[in-house]
Amino acid sequence: MALQVYNSMTRTKEVFTPIHAPYVGMYVCGPTVSGESHLGHARPYVTFDIVYRYLQELGYKVRYVRNITDAGHFEEEGKEAEDKVGGKAKLERLEPMELVQKYTNLFHDAMDALGNLRPSIEPTATGHIPEQIAMIQDMIAKGLAYESNGSVYFEVRRYAETEKYGQLSGRVLEEMIAGSRELDGQQEKRDPADFALWKKAPAEHIMRWNSPWGEGFPGWHIECSAMATKYLGKHFDIHGGGMDLQFPHHESEIAQSTVCNGCAPVKYWMHNNMITVNGKKMGKSYNNTITLRELFSGAHALLEKAYSPMTVRFLILQTHYRSTLDFSNEALQSAEKGLARLMSAANIMKTFVKGDATKIGTSATDVQIQKLIAECTQFMDDDFNTAMVLANLFEMASIAFVVKNLQLPTGEASEGALALMANTFERFVYGIFGLQESVQTSGSKMDDVMQVLMNIRKEARAKKDFATSDLIRNQLTEKGISIKDEKDGTVSWTINE
Amino acid sequence: MALQVYNSMTRTKEVFTPIHAPYVGMYVCGPTVSGESHLGHARPYVTFDIVYRYLQELGYKVRYVRNITDAGHFEEEGKEAEDKVGGKAKLERLEPMELVQKYTNLFHDAMDALGNLRPSIEPTATGHIPEQIAMIQDMIAKGLAYESNGSVYFEVRRYAETEKYGQLSGRVLEEMIAGSRELDGQQEKRDPADFALWKKAPAEHIMRWNSPWGEGFPGWHIECSAMATKYLGKHFDIHGGGMDLQFPHHESEIAQSTVCNGCAPVKYWMHNNMITVNGKKMGKSYNNTITLRELFSGAHALLEKAYSPMTVRFLILQTHYRSTLDFSNEALQSAEKGLARLMSAANIMKTFVKGDATKIGTSATDVQIQKLIAECTQFMDDDFNTAMVLANLFEMASIAFVVKNLQLPTGEASEGALALMANTFERFVYGIFGLQESVQTSGSKMDDVMQVLMNIRKEARAKKDFATSDLIRNQLTEKGISIKDEKDGTVSWTINE
Fold first, then answer.
1. What's the number of CA atoms in the CB half-sphere (13 Å) around residue B389?
2. Residues A123, A67: contact at Cβ < 8 Å?
3. Are A479 and B105 a contacting pair at CB < 8 A?
4. Among A323, B327, B338, B480, which has the highest number of CB atoms less than 10 A from its own CB?
């Protein structure tokens, strides 16, 4: 069976056939770094990290481009008035790029913590102003964009005369006008459906660039057309993002790229579904926007405790990416337990891996193991069904526990079947799913183990077994750890280096 | 005493007076990310991290800008020929920005590991093409630059007629011509001293942008003028970098900015001195270029072992930044020991901090402590003399060890003096010097301690002391750690989570 991908454009699962195999080009809409990353950022980037990992597992050479949106309205709330006072030295004024840097760093830290591989290229909107201007000039030259009062707009109805507009989101033009976010600049547009390619910068706007239409900044959609074309070409394989981006962002992107490049830009459009928090849409009005830092530290009124990034990753993988996903304490705590069980099984599996994989029997367990293994690939090939794969990994985990506890008749699980199972398990858990043992664990465990050791030493001394207590001290010294008996009877320890 | 900074331009120490106190603008030349970060990158960024930290300690609001040079000749060696074949799809061709991303990530990882705070803004050369083009146009309009065959050059002799050129590096024009790196394009220049502002892109050059002079890419020096002006203003406080950048890079930067902005750009020029490896200049011809990854992992023929990033940081701080610094196994191992001693003292100091700082006596030790504390600030104020501060911190450490071992007469070191000392010690070690306990240590130490515990268990079993061996197993189980006796006589252990 070959990989099948659900294409949001055709609304069907299609066999994945790259345009220039073995190369695959994938563009995913990155974050807008005008604020801190929140729960809503975890899902799309874990989802497309899995796509990235699995495509590489299948042998493709993937160029994964994920942008940073750092142009537009980037000013800290409340700070605007005081900072925009003219006449101040540059250094005393707010600098939007400082905020961009701060939120980009936080985003990167969160992505690393979640175990997402870094994209091949992470281009910024501000880093591609000339490319965006060039595309806008091209659209004006082709008669599909017009300048109005220093801003430039895309003429949607004109485009819709010859091309399909709204196919991806399944909307008709009139609906789209009603759903448009752009409230300002309406009087400058020829038609309410038109969207901005370039915005004239008001006097107080700090972020601004020279352009053929005066000082301004790019519209929201043009950056993705410019950067995808620059790094992946006019026609590339996969474009990903959250479902909420289908309109107006992706529709606009398609229109822009089609005009400039003479062809539809994307072969497979992929969209992850939305998240909810305790069943409600996340949003300011609900007071339920949880940042990733809050989630990882537990510092939010809605959280009963801190949840590790790996717990969050695991929870995301438990639901197929095209279904909605609800974040709740219950779901997170259940994911935490599930992850712990999986990791516990992973440690047992390590002892199986060395087995001779050719020695497979015909017992019911051996047959079951082979079925479970084959299905993992089938599930992934079926539009990246991580939830189904996880179910199989849990069945494998159960087998591992049973084997470890010697609860199976001899020969029921053959050396070869166990080795194959362990290999598959590790490949999926660590490689394709990118799950890891929580790093923090070993820090506190070190304290735990030292405490056990000190208990044993105390026992020995109580029994006047000074040979043992000295042995403990000497061996620790050898390892570079000093222990000291405190006056209150406790023992403190320090790592010497 | 006020902070004094050695100004490379005036060759004297000057009292530091920010242009717009309490704001301070600092620009430091960042890495060229066409290759992996090496030893030579550790020193300047640790040096200016200390400057950044100390200025903040003094209460200044610092905007620290450190650029990423990602424009120019960015192609993987050996790959050029095959990848530049025309007619290939974009995705099949080499993309320089993929290399840029890879080496930028590695640079960031190394900087984080070295404990350097992240700069306020980290702008890229490719992200400021319009700003660079605008400055070049300005220089042409002012008659100090000219276009020649699609490239643009700065007319050095013309500039030198009215402005001082060579003041920073102390060179006269004729020397500078001889020392110039630019071998190509000589026939296009009006004078050999002229340097490139914009280079015409040859047909095979992948990185290229439109400009008023055709497709090309910016010269090496213009990006820093453009980005420093954009984020810090026409005249800012500190410009830092390695001494090797004085000419031609910083001289050119001064000339460009002076022409465009009508004033010298920088109040205080700061330059760190060079490093050597085993007494030799680092370079390809000596086969002694050690990347930071190699240094941290020990994977280089010249390294006897791995050195932690904190060891490297400590070694850098042990030498004043304006002296040369030699990296050798001896020096690194001695730094490792020094750092361990300091961290050991830091742990003892933690018990002193709580003391009542008003209870200071007049004993010799109390007087000595107060002198050591006062000097720390004096040394830092004397052009960031971290080496001298470290000497004082070691004297404080000695006092801490003596106090801990009860080797002082009662009252000789008062509660208050020890509290003050501990506060100063922690402020410098962790805050101003940014030193940390090595994180990796505890990982391998965990293995060490488990091994000690397993040795004790083995001893117990050999003596048929099963009470002890059971106690060990049970206590570990309680802590969530399973142990398993392997067939080969070893014991494996797993954390159950």
1. 26
2. yes
3. no
4. B327
Q: d(Cα B311, Cα B294) in Å, to the nearest integer?
A: 14
- Identify whether the C-beta of residue A418 lies closer than 8 Å to the C-beta of residue A355: yes
Residue length, chain B?
497
Residue with tokens 């397993």: B454
CA dihedral B306→B42→B223→B186, nearest 10 degrees, is -80
DSSP code, position A410: T
Count the neighbouring beta carbons within 10 Å of the beta carbon of residue A283.
Answer: 11
Domains of chain B plus CATH, in order, are 4-272 (3.40.50.620), 277-432 (1.10.730), 442-495 (no CATH)
DSSP3 helix / strand / coil % (chain B, rounded to 5) = 50, 15, 35
pLDDT above 60: residue B80: no
- Please, which contacts does A227-230 make with residues 24 or more away whose CB atoms are closer than 8 Å? A227/A27, A227/A65, A227/A67, A227/A123, A227/A125, A227/A128, A227/A131, A228/A27, A228/A65, A228/A253, A228/A257, A228/A265, A229/A131, A229/A135, A229/A257, A229/A260, A229/A261, A229/A265, A230/A123, A230/A128, A230/A131
The DSSP annotation for A337-383 comes to HHHHHHHHHHHHHTTTTTS-TT----SHHHHHHHHHHHHHHHHHHBT
A121 touches chain B (CB under 8 A): yes
- C-alpha A375 chain-centroid distance: 25
**3-state secondary structure (DSSP) of residue A275:** strand
The span from the CA of A365 to the CA of A251, in Å, is 51
Detail the DSSP E strand segments found in B29-134.
61-66
For the segment A276-307, what is each residue's pLDDT rounded down to a tens digit? Answer: 999 999 887 888 999 999 999 999 999 999 99
Q: Cα Rg for chain B, rounded, in angstroms?
A: 28
DSSP A118: P
- Reported as a single tens digit per residue, the pLDDT across B398-442 is 999 999 888 888 789 999 999 999 999 999 999 999 999 865 444
Q: Which value does ipTM take for this structure? A: 0.86
Nearest to B482 by CA among A396, A73, A343, A220: A343
Q: Work out the mean pLDDT of chain A and round it to a whole number.
A: 90
Contact A74/B at CB under 8 A: no
In angstroms, the CA A189 to CA A192 distance is: 6
Q: What is the pLDDT of residue B440?
A: 46
Contact present, A151 and A196 (Cβ < 8 Å): yes
Asked if residues B112 and B310 have their Cβ atoms less than 8 Å apart, the reply is no
Residue A89's pLDDT is what? 75
Provide the whole-model pTM.
Answer: 0.88
- How many degrees, rounded to 5, is the angle at CA B470 between CA B465 and CA B471? 100
> Percent helix, strand, coil in chain A (nearest 5)?
50, 15, 35
- Could you tell me where the beta strands, DSSP code E, fall in B33-183? 61-66, 145-148, 151-154
- Would you call B442 and A437 a contact, using CB atoms and an 8 Å cutoff? no
Q: A339 and A435 in contact (C-beta within 8 Å)?
A: yes
**Is B347's CB within 8 Å of A122's CB?**
no
The angle that helices B309-317 and B386-404 make with each other, rounded to 10 degrees, is 110
Give A126's contacts in chain B (Cβ within 8 Å): 127
Q: At what angle do helices B440-462 and B466-478 cross, to 10 degrees?
A: 150
Question: Which of A92, A436, A456, A483 has the highest number of chain B CBs within 10 A, making it the mutation to test binding with B?
Answer: A456
Cβ under 8 Å to B: A residues 467-496: 468, 471-472, 475-476, 479-481, 494-496
Could you check whether the bond before residue B248 is cis, i.e. omega within 30 degrees of 0?
yes
